[in-house]
Amino acid sequence: MSNILAALGVVQMKKLDRMNDARRVHAAAYNQQLSAEFFDLPVEKDGRKHVYQMYTLKLKNVDRTKFLADLRGLGIVRDGAFRSAGSHAAVLCGAVQLGGA
Hints:
By secondary structure, the protein is mostly helical. It contains two helices and two strands. It has helices spanning 3-33, 64-73; strands spanning 39-40, 58-59. It starts with a helix and ends in a 28-residue tail after the last helix.
């Protein structure tokens, strides 16, 4: 690792708690607005803090293909996928804003 990358990493580490806290706030909003009837929602176990680098949920008793088609019909497009850091691939995902913000 070069000195420049190390310096960037040190600066990013100073921001880590703030960035994780912001993701937790967003995750809480998603959890409030998504129904546990249809999704297995992510949880924070007692004594643990989830960093929500990715907010992942699992469909329950729903046809995934139909669900994705319905989202596309509403103009919500999932057009990317998670790639490991080592793949150096760009990830482009559609976003849904909650609460009109």
